[in-house]
Amino acid sequence: MEVVASINRYKYEVFRWRTEAAIPRKLALALGMACLTGLLAQLRIPLPWSPVPVTGQTFAVLLSGVLLGRWWGGISQIFYAGLGFAGTPWFAGWSGGIGVLLGPTGGYIIGYIFASFFMGYFTDRYIRARSFLTMFGLMLIANFVLIHGPGLLQLGMWLSLVKGKAFTLWELLWMGTIPFIAGDLTKAAAAAAIARGVSPKMAYNGEVDRDKKFWRIP
Fold first, then answer.
1. Cβ distance 127 to 119 under 8 Å?
2. 159-173 pLDDT, tens per residue?
3. Burial level of 138, CB count in 10 A (0-12/13-18/19+)?
4. What are the structural domains of the chain?
5. What is the tens place of the pLDDT at every residue in 64-99?
6. Residue 30 CA: distances (Å) to CA of 11, 72, 132
7. Residue 196 and residue 6: Cα distance in Å, rounded?
8. Crossing angle of the two packed helices 148-163 and 106-125, in degrees rounded to 10
9. What is the rounded average pLDDT for all residues in the chain?
């Protein structure tokens, strides 16, 4: 029991520290998470029928909000997107530049920012959001709504310009979402398990449910 209590106390101290850290340290953490996102983007599997490859960076995106918090997780993805669009070659396939923003994957990268802010908000705001099942559900919303939503929108506009014709929703889903479902579910489950393991089950930042009694979901 002492070991468990020590681990829980350590998790609390780490999350409390990252919440109260000075701005330069938060900037460094955000830049580090952006670098991790860029590294995982190189885990890339091209699909012959789609201009959107399978990549690993959504794993880092989903965890960035949990690990860095309500604002700084999203800022880490602003760094990733902004520096990448400025020319840093850390998008999939060691690419970078404004052409990526205007290309078939630009919407997904913009969606990373929304997804990270979303995960950071719930992690910092609600103690009960830090269970595995709740985290997994939130990550599925972040992935398939906040990332794939703008991703499919951008993909559709890019295809209509390049191919000169409108694509149906089913065609867009087949190119931009359906091939990624299994991998995204796996990444979300792994990220949720890590989030469940590292996040404290006590208030560290004035959570709204800190004084409420509730049944915790495992």
1. no
2. 999 888 888 999 999
3. buried
4. 2-198 (1.10.1760.20)
5. 999 999 899 999 999 999 999 999 999 999 999 999
6. 19, 6, 24
7. 17
8. 170
9. 92
